[in-house]
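Narrative summary of target 7.
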Amino acid sequence: MTLRTTILIMSAFGVISDSILIAFYPQFFELRYGLASSVHVGAYIAAISIAVMCMLPVWARVTRRVETLHLLAYTQLAATAFCLLAIWAPTVEAYWLLTMLMFMTKASYLLMFPYLMRLEPANQHSVTIGLLSVVIHIGAIFGAAVGGLALQEFGPRFCVALMAAGDLAQFGLCTYLIRSGRVVRVLSADEGERAAPAPRRTPEALSALLKLSLLMFLFDFSAYLVRPFFTVYWEARTGISDQLLTGVIFAIPGIVALFALALRHRMASQPRWADHTLLNLVIGAGGLALQASESLWLIVLGRCLYGWALYQVIVKLEVTLFKVSTPAFYARDFGVTNFFQNLGVLLSSFSAGYLVDWVGVPTSFVIAAAGMLLTAVIDRGWFGVDSRHRTSAEVCHA
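Modeled conformation, tokenized:
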């Protein structure tokens, strides 16, 4: 296997591990510890975001002294150990402690993304990001379906064991790359760059990075506001309690993303409207609003529209990051934008728990749709993602 293929497979295992329970935490905590509080579920998912957003910059700093894949081997092995211990956590407090340590250590796998982008030529960035996005969506589909089936047939402890297996697979692949000599070392290049005079960023470059980060924050807040409680909402709205089917419905956005990628590769040139940021944000808002309907089919249609918009906008924003950054700053800038993205998910998770108690899930969908429209307005008047893609020779660093 090539280095890129192996990293893509590792990313898939990481996403599958994360996705096994993400859609079923309300059911998980009720089955395992007898807790049925929506606020508790929101707080737990928010705590995951805090763990990741705080530790990713730390791991990015460590990679200035340790090769990325060597670091990943150690951290994923540690994550596996914490996850295995969580299987037998006797109390919810012990489960919180062990799984937070797990997420803190496994957060390092996100550094595979900027590491891979450093190895790819600039004209391949959009293709690579598209492949990564598809791998993430396939992993989310598989993880949600397997998680629903495992929770229904084998119980919550087995789901935690599956999460540990995903982390162990990443450790195994890292070890394979290191021992086979396929690792591309970047520390020597970094040392050369540090020996040279440090490049100074222009105010325009810093402003562009900050604006993009704030845009990502608002988009992620809106896109993931209702995620923690969608499965409970679906089962209550439809009266269908089959958790395997619930997992598939939850994964519809990922299925639509695969369709969008296949469409992009089959067409010689994609129509401009297909990845137009403003249009896709409006489509995403419409998809979120439709999910507040009482009709089963309108909910499914809303998931499809939401999935299309989610894929197109995420890819566009990620490509934009590498247009306003340079290779020497990829890991650092990725850490900055990832901090804002996780902050958006964090606040949405906290807000979701209270909103569901206060106004219910349907109104939460409407609030999320309004946030998506606000993102479109801010981008149109303040940043302009599409305009940055039309100017191929933009210089953001001095």
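The radius of gyration is 21 Å.
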